């Protein structure tokens, strides 16, 4: 997605600890024209798989996920990181590591909105180590739903998440690919794959 690649070139910053800051377009501020195009691109890519639900994780996955769900005309379900009292027991749960806040986080998906018979595409903002997507895939499997594919806005190729998720045997589509980055040399970004 060329507009996203251009925006990362203009706004992206490399922070200590191998974190790419794209707060002005993905994490803290959203640019509607970019978010809408993300949804259109993901929807066009995954429509042939005939998904019936989009699944994501709060908080930064929600925007590209709902943009995709709106184009496909299907519900969007998101994993929460704190279990609200309204969530019916038993919920599907897993743990992942928050890359931007540090520490292990618990994830909860309501069993009211995911289960056997659901055909699911997962959309998230970052594919880095793949740990978060692994946790989501586990919850989807336990629910009895079928995982059809994974879409992420930004892939950090050098963290190898794509290879680590190969055993899931589903297509992974990303919109921008960070080939390498460092505080000294900046960001090498290309179109996703
Ligand atoms: O492939 P991984 O190494 O698991 O990294 C990717 C995850 O890390 C971020 O979550 P984080 O909790 O940092 O951020 P958020 O609250 O902004 O969604 C991002 O939103 C992905 O879900
Ligand atoms: O804002 C972010 N920047 C990153 O580099 C990253 N990696 C995983 N999750 C991330 N979120």
TrEMBL record:
Pathway: Purine metabolism; XMP biosynthesis via salvage pathway; XMP from xanthine: step 1/1. Keywords: Cytoplasm, Glycosyltransferase, Membrane, Purine salvage, Transferase, Transmembrane, Transmembrane helix. GO terms for biological process: purine ribonucleoside salvage; xanthine metabolic process; XMP salvage. The chain crosses the membrane at residues 59-79. Residues 41-157 form the Phosphoribosyltransferase domain. It catalyses: XMP + diphosphate = xanthine + 5-phospho-alpha-D-ribose 1-diphosphate. 5-phospho-alpha-D-ribose 1-diphosphate binds at residues 128-132. One of its GO terms (cellular component) is cytoplasm. It is an enzyme of class 2 (transferase). GO terms for molecular function: xanthine phosphoribosyltransferase activity. Its EC number is 2.4.2.22. It is found in: Cytoplasm. The keyword Phosphoprotein does not apply. InterPro entries: PRTase-like (IPR029057), PRTase_dom (IPR000836), Pur/Pyrimidine_PRTase (IPR050118), Xanthine_PRibTrfase (IPR010079). The keyword Transmembrane helix applies. Xanthine binds at residues 20, 27, 156. NCBIfam families: PRK09219.1, XPRTase. Converts the preformed base xanthine, a product of nucleic acid breakdown, to xanthosine 5'-monophosphate (XMP), so it can be reused for RNA or DNA synthesis. Belongs to the purine/pyrimidine phosphoribosyltransferase family. Xpt subfamily. Homodimer. This is Xanthine phosphoribosyltransferase. The lineage of its organism: Bacteria, Thermotogati, Deinococcota, Deinococci, Deinococcales.
């Amino acid at each position: 997605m060329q507009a996203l690649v251009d925006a990362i070139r203009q706004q992206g910053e490399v922070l200590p600890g191998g974190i790419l800051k794209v707060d002005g377009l993905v994490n803290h501020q959203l640019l509607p024209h970019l978010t809408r195009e993300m949804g259109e691109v993901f929807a066009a890519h995954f429509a042939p798989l005939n998904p019936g639900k989009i699944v994501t994780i709060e908080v930064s996955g929600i925007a590209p996920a709902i943009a995709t769900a709106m184009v496909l005309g299907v519900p969007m379900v998101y994993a929460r990181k704190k279990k609200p009292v309204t969530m019916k027991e038993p919920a599907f749960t897993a743990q992942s590591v928050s890359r931007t806040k540090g520490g292990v986080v618990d994830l909860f998906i309501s069993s009211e909105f995911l289960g056997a018979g659901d055909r699911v595409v997962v959309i998230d903002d970052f594919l880095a180590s793949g740990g978060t997507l692994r946790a989501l895939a586990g919850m989807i499997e336990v629910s009895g739903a079928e995982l059809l594919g994974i879409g992420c806005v930004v892939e950090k190729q050098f963290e190898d998440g794509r290879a680590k998720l190969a055993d899931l045997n589903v297509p992974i589509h990303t919109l921008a690919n960070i080939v390498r980055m460092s505080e000294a040399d900046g960001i090498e970004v290309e179109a996703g794959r």
